Amino acid sequence: MSLLSYGMLKKDGGTIQLRGTTAVEPPGPTQEPPHGDPGGRGLSGVPGGADAGSSSNMAPKLRAQSSSPPRRSRARQQTTGPNDPEFQRGTPQGKLWNPEESSPSTLLKSKQTSSSKPRGASHSEEDNQAALRLLPQPETRPISQEQLVAEVKGIYAGLMMVESKCIEVDNAQSSQNDTKLNNEQWQALIALHRTLLHEHHDFFLASQHPSASQALKRLASKYAMPARMWRHGIHSFLELLRHRLPGSLEHMLTFIYLAYSMMALLYETVPAFEDTWIECLGDLGRYRMAIEDEDIRDREVWTSVSRHWYSKASDKAPTTGRLYHHLAILARPNALQQLFYYSKSLCVPIPFASAKESIMTLFDPALGGGNHQQTHLIPIDAAFVKSHGIMFSHKQVDNFRLVADEFLGLLDAHISRITKRWMEAGYYIAIANCCALLSYGREENVIMRLIHSQDNEKQGQTTGSVADVPKPTRDFEDALYLAMKTHEVVFNRQDDANVLPYTHVVLVFMLYLTRFPSALAQVEHLFPWKPLSLKLNELLSSCNNYDRIRSGEFPRESNNPPRPVPEDFALKGLVFVDQYYPSDWFSNDKIDDDEKYFEMASMTGVRKERILCLGYKIAQSGKGLTYDEGANRFGVFPQYERDIEGDAMDIDEAPTSSTSTTTFL
What we know:
Elements: E1 9-12, E2 15-18, H1 104-116, H2 125-132, H3 145-174, H4 183-207, H5 214-217, H6 219-222, H7 225-243, H8 249-269, H9 274-290, H10 296-316, H11 321-330, H12 335-346, H13 355-358, H14 360-367, H15 372-375, H16 379-393, H17 400-418, H18 422-437, H19 446-458, H20 474-491, H21 500-513, H22 517-524, H23 529-540, H24 546-550, H25 566-571, H26 593-596, H27 603-620, E3 625-628, E4 633-636, H28 644-647, H29 658-661
Antiparallel strand pairs: 1-2, 3-4
Helix pairs in contact: 3-4, 3-7, 4-7, 4-8, 7-8, 7-9, 8-9, 9-10, 10-11, 11-12, 12-18, 14-16, 16-17, 16-20, 17-20, 18-20, 18-21, 19-22, 21-27, 23-27
GO cellular component, one term: telomerase holoenzyme complex
Pfam family, one: EST1_DNA_bind
GO molecular function: telomerase RNA binding; telomeric DNA binding
């Protein structure tokens, strides 16, 4: 069958035409072949333009095109010479330049004439004036209080109906974990919860309207609308989706993105509940991070997003332990940072009790008897985490000294090896040890009991006598051993700026205890005062302003916004940091999250001054240290003038009861 039978080509009177296209004349003797037809072949691919539909060639085989460059047709005459019309130029017709015709006035007039009518102008002068005319502001109709109240009531009525339906459906599905839902059912559930989120959004916009009265604005708080939105509109459904994984993965991703966009919108439009929206955004980011198992990069991105929101929330509510618990989960696999956040979540004024269970996910691998490779920790970190795990869980208590000594034996060489990187690890270790001395926030801790007892006495409340305070427990004695021995190793490192953050944290804790003499007595007799005094005298050698140290005020740079050092953010919110920082010390909101823990060279001098001021305040309290203002030197009381390494009292021989330790006051 020929190509003509398919209707692809048609030849009529020497014209080759594709159906539906323009006819193309075959190249004549003076024409070049069409573009893309090298060698002078016709469109049919048959040399010489033969009939493609001849009976002798029912199934013509197209000839392959030559790879040689296009050639000029042989039929065309080669006329390239002086007589070629293409090279002939006529005599130019013109006239000589006349100065009168090229005067400035003539040129200006012609220029104005040409510019007054720009080429391609599509608007008349009237249209241009209309386009430049200013429009008045659209009229807005004020809404009355009655209309606003009616609007809020109507929205709330619809919200209640959708909310009750969501609660009913979520409870029904949660009790039927074996039931598998198809895509249409999941989409219906997502649409139902999306409707509830939209109803909440409308309620917040109406109740927080600028024209709303204070009573109307208080409705959202009165009826706990932000918490209800999170609980019934988002969290319960996310938990339902989580328990149906992996089959519900795609639907869970869809709903997380939906809820995240809604919370981001509320964060921008309803600032009255900004703290709640920030924490909800962090929770949604953590859900998204937790279900990402395939792409490690996406997991890290959502971990960073969630950490950003939780850090922002902790800045606004530094005494809320729940936020530090969430940050501890995101800190994996950094074991020291995890231990720091878990400990902090239990040692703030509003502790998070659930952290006592979560922290065991960090301790169990270390207490399980596995080697360092199984816990994915270097030996010194594994020993430190295990020692805290023993104190917290009261498991393997007989092995505590062995594990603690392993950590202490590796510490000095470890600091020398990692140098500047130990600055961050140093204040993590210091804060964790201080929290261990407080028994991780337990009320039965001897220091906490003595602090509360003294506070009650100041308030005129009668409490039991000092003899009624229980004796220190085994975990407190172990924490005291670990903390004091760590102090000795660190304080004995002279001329090392990398241990200054650790020293700063320890002195903040000791200054806090000086306000409670009976509590300080529990640690004063074992504290390495002599190495500390030598460390302080070393820092005094670079001091130029002794009056600033003796002023008793918090040292800060003048004419500059506050710039806290990294450990300030780590200490913020802890129970033993009360009254240390000025009220506006963390008011600089221009510091990004990444900049908070960025170490600058100028911070070394800031830390030295802080440590010297803390040492002077402790000396002024008459506990442990002394200060000679004439010689500007630190010293210790006679009972602490001893070689710490050789003559220090062993913790087993130290007095443990509160009555006997008062002799050191």
